[in-house]
Amino acid sequence: MAVSQQTTGAVLVEELIEHRWDYFSGVPCSLLKGAFVRLEALGADQAAYYLPAPREEVAVAAAAGAYLAGRNPVVLMQNSGLGYCLNTLTSLLLIYRIPVVLVISWRGHGPDAVEHVIIGEAIERLLDAIGVPHQVLDDVPAAVRWATSTASSSRRPVALLVQETI
Amino acid sequence: MSSAAPTKILADLVSAVPDAMFVSTCGYLSRDLQQVGDRSNFFYLAGSMGAALPLGLALAGCAPETQVVVIDGDGSFLMGLNCLPLVGALAPHNLVHVVLDNGMHESTGGQRTVATGRSGVRIRKAMRAAGYVRALRATHVTDSVAAALHRPGPTGIHIPVAPRTSVAPRIITAPEELVRRTRRLLAHRAGRLR
C-alpha cells in the first residue's frame, strides 16, 4: 500500500477502522470499488472483518448480529440496494436502536443509466422519510467523525452518500 | 410418528442446549419461543422476515464461544435462502439452523408455502448443497438431534410441525431491551472466557 496512491475508498475504510468501526459487510458498487478492494485485503490479523453479502438485507441483518456480539458495524451498498433492505432498516436497525454506518453510492445523482434515475432522485427523501440522518461524503475525516458521533449518540443508522468513484 | 406442536419442539431444543443463544424469526415462532419461558439468551425478531439466519450467522462468527441456534419457519427459510451459501462458505462451527415446517404462513392466515410437498424445496438438500456439515430431518428432538446439537456445525435441522391449536401472546420485551440484554450476556461470556 505504501508505494501506490491510496484510493479514497481505502482511506475511508481506514478512517472508519480508526474510529473503531470493525465489522464491514455489503454488496459492491463500482463507485465504491476502492473501499471494497481495501476490505478484501483485510488480513486475519487485523481487528476489522469483512463479510461479503449476497443481498443488502443480508448485510444489514449481519450488521445487527455483529452489534449484538459487541462489534461496530458498517454496511456498504449501491442506492439500488436501499430498496432491497428498506424493511430491514426500519423493522430491525431503527426499531432495535442499532447504530450502523451505511456507505451508500449515489447512482443517478446526475445523468446516469436509466435504472438509477428514480432511486437517484429519491434517495435523500427516502432516507429522510425513515429517519436516517445522511451526509454527502466529501472530506473523509470530517464525514467519519460526523457519522461516528451521530450514530453513537442517536443509536441509529446513519448514511454517507458517495457521488463519485472512491 | 405424528408432528409435534412448535412449542414442544422449542422447549425440547432449549432443554438440549440451554446456554445457546436462540434467534427466532418474526411472527408466531418468536411468540412460541417466548411462551417456552423468556430468557436472556432468547433474541426475538419483531419483523425482517428472512433476517434470522444472517443475523445468527454474524453473531456466531463474532461470538465463537457461544452456540447460536436460529429458529426459522418454512416461509422465512425460503425468504432467506440467499444466505445459505454464505453459511456454507463461512462454516461457523457454532451455528445451528432449525426450520420448523408447517407448510404454511400460519401467522398470516395459513397460506401455503412451496417448501413442502412433492414439488417443493427439499430443505435438507438445499442445506447440504450449500455446504452445511450435516442436515437432519426429525419429527421430534430425538437423541440423534440432541447429539447433532453438540457436534461442530454448521448444522441444519428440518422439523415438520403441526399447525398450532392456539396463538401465544405477543413479545413483551421491548426491542431495545432485547439488544441491551443480549449485548450484556455476550460481553459477560466473552469476558469470562478471555
Written overview of the protein:
The complex is a heterodimer of chains A (166) and B (194). Chain A has 6 helices and 6 strands, in the order H-E-H-E-H-E-H-E-H-E-H-E. Chain A is α/β, with parallel strands linked by helices and 166 residues long. In chain A, strand 3, helix 4 and strand 4 form a beta-alpha-beta unit. In chain A, helix 1 crosses helix 2, helix 1 packs across helix 6 and helix 4 runs parallel beside helix 5. By secondary structure, chain B is an alpha/beta fold. Chain B is 41% helix and 18% strand. Chain B has a 6-stranded parallel sheet, with helices on both faces. Chain B has a two-stranded antiparallel sheet with strand order 5-6. Chain B is globular, with a radius of gyration of 15 Å. Chains A and B meet through helix 3 and helix 4 of A and helix 3, helix 5 and helix 8 of B.
Quick summary of this structure?
Chain A has 166 residues and is of the alpha/beta class.
Overall body shape of chain B: globular
What's the CATH topology name of chain A? Rossmann fold
What is the rounded distance between the termini of chain A? 16 Å
- Order of strands across the widest beta sheet of chain A? 2-1-3-4-6-5
Distance between the termini of chain B: 45 Å
How many helices of chain B? 8
The level 1 CATH classification of chain A is: Alpha Beta
Largest interface (CB within 8 Å) is between: A-B, 31 and 35 residues
User: How would you write the strand order of the largest sheet of chain B?
Assistant: 2-1-3-4-8-7
Oligomer: heterodimer
Beta-strand portion of chain A reads 15-25%
Secondary structure: helix percent of chain A: 40-55%
Based on secondary structure, the structural category of chain B is alpha/beta
